[in-house]
């Protein structure tokens, strides 16, 4: 059995699943905070709530399954978009709105289809405009 943190959960007996509470979050929320694709996680992670302490432990000392998932994927849309240097909207527009592995992302980057090149250029321009606006806004405050 794979443990969420590879350490026993002192708060929950072995035969029970932990439910979300004021101090715990759903697995979906934890996966989002960890930047991982929930369906690719171990069943135990998906079935249990994750406390804030467990989340910190996962971030600071990732177990092998988490390190492997972050390294090889499949990755959720926001991570795919970030690795490709484009927006999630661009993924959707180009029918790439699905989890991709690191190998698939590298393959796309090396092939650099037209849609990806255009989306990267548009995303870079958007980011540049946002940074310019932030800088001019801060100068106005000084």
TrEMBL record:
The protein in question is named Uncharacterized protein
Which Pfam families does the protein's record reference? DUF5997
Bias (Basic and acidic residues)? 120-129
Bias (Polar residues): 1-22
Region entry Disordered, spans:
1-28, 120-142
Q: What is the lineage of its organism?
A: Bacteria, Bacillati, Actinomycetota, Actinomycetes, Mycobacteriales
Under InterPro entries, the record lists:
DUF5997
